[in-house]
Design goal:
The structure holds two protein chains of two kinds.
Chain A lengths: L5 H43 L9 E9 L7 E3 L2 H13 L7 E11 L2 E12 L2 E13 L5 E8 L5 H11 L19
Parallel strand pairs in A: 1-6
Antiparallel strand pairs in A: 1-2, 3-4, 4-5, 5-6
Chain B lengths: L2 H12 L12 H20 L5 H5 L2 E11 L2 E5 L2 H8 L1 H4 L9 E10 L2 E12 L2 E14 L2 E11 L4 H11 L10
Parallel strand pairs in B: 1-6
Antiparallel strand pairs in B: 1-2, 3-4, 4-5, 5-6
The chains are: A alpha+beta, B alpha+beta.
């Protein structure tokens, strides 16, 4: 084996430095993702338990987006309005008869995460079985700054058919045809 | 062992994610492969002249694709069924000029799992179509083997037409379909 030359030692040193920098950066990303995964799991546990302390995860300026053109669809732009939204939702369920949450898939990357889950229980209008997907944006303090709540519409089909029937009548002004995008008052 | 080789081994030891999945791939390797696949897949989404023939190459033959829409829940149980539904000659019966352009809002990748959030715009015979999408995927063997989609159409007129289209194909079974 020949002794390394000055040039090859320099190249090797540069390679080591680059590798170490890359490894440190990758390790920091992986650490951030691990932390976000843990927050996401804790958040889902509280949601499953219908634990009111779930609000501890919401930043004061949290924004909730709901994929729905019914009375609840649109953006909710404060912690108070998000709290009210979930109170409204909870009031439609007979929680005492049991509400089960099943986590089906989790995707976490950096300070974002997304989960897919199924909810079964007793809605005031009958048996409830629905699929949800939510996307979360977290800050470094472990608080949610944005929640996007998408849910399957099947269980609400009758409700939506009625709403759609109303929607087929031409609006009086274009503005009235727009989906609601503002958060409701707390 | 040369100094260069020692350096490379040192760098490999520093690299995170040494735990390997059953197929011998690290989580980071799976994530990188899934990301490359999803970026190619989404690039086609964003081209407004895509065809189903381009899409279908990304799907595993055992594809299971579930859509949760206002018109009900329906599931494709193979790539072939998906293709047969959306192949160009079939779409000529669909009264909807669906040539959308899309805006990617978010893509997250985690091992063999991925999620995309995007908005699609299109012109229809009723005017503008605008729709929020969320898709969650699972990849196997370098292809999409499962995805779940929930949509949020702004065009209400789209719902009944979409339901009729799916009903005519025998895909729409109402809300009770698993």
């Amino acid at each position: 084996m020949s002794a390394p030359t000055g040039a090859s030692s320099l190249a090797c040193g540069a390679l080591l430095l680059l590798s170490a920098t890359w490894a440190a950066s990758a390790a920091a990303d992986a650490s951030q993702t691990r932390q976000t995964r843990a927050w996401t799991e804790q958040y889902f546990e509280r949601m499953s338990a219908a634990d009111a302390s779930i609000a501890d995860f919401w930043a004061d300026d949290v924004v909730l987006f709901v994929n729905n053109h019914g009375p609840w669809g649109g953006h909710y732009g404060s912690k108070a309005s998000v709290t009210q939204y979930y109170r409204d939702m909870a009031s439609m369920f007979d929680v005492e008869k049991g509400l089960t949450f099943e986590l089906l898939q989790t995707v976490v990357e950096g300070r974002h995460s997304s989960i897919r889950f199924r909810v079964q229980g007793q809605h005031k209008s009958g048996a409830y079985d629905n699929h949800y997907m939510q996307v979360y944006a977290w800050n470094d303090d472990g608080k949610l700054t944005r929640i996007e709540n998408f849910y399957g519409w099947g269980p609400f089909a009758d409700f939506h058919r009625q709403a759609l029937a109303k929607d087929q009548t031409p609006p009086r002004t274009p503005r009235q045809a727009l989906p609601k995008t503002l958060g409701r008052a707390p | 062992m040369t100094q260069t080789m020692r350096g490379l081994l040192f760098a490999m030891a520093l690299a995170p994610g040494v735990a390997l999945a059953d197929d011998g791939k690290s989580h980071e390797q799976l994530t990188a492969e899934t990301r490359a696949l999803m970026e190619q897949y989404f690039a086609i989404h964003q081209a407004n002249d895509f065809t189903i023939d381009e899409f279908i190459k990304f799907y595993h033959e055992d594809l299971r694709a579930t859509y949760y829409r206002p018109t009900g829940i329906f599931t494709f149980t193979s790539a072939q069924q998906y293709y047969d539904t959306y192949k160009p000659e079939r779409l000529t019966t669909f009264d909807f000029d669906y040539k959308p352009w899309t805006v990617s809002l978010l893509m997250l990748v985690d091992g063999e799992n991925a999620v995309t959030r995007y908005v699609a715009h299109a012109r229809t015979k009723d005017g503008e179509y605008r729709n929020h999408y969320i898709h969650m995927y699972r990849v196997r063997g370098g292809k999409i083997v499962e995805f779940h989609a929930i949509t949020n159409p702004h065009s209400r007129a789209h719902y009944p037409r979409n339901r009729k289209f799916l009903h005519d194909l025998g895909l729409y079974k109402g809300q009770d379909q698993p």
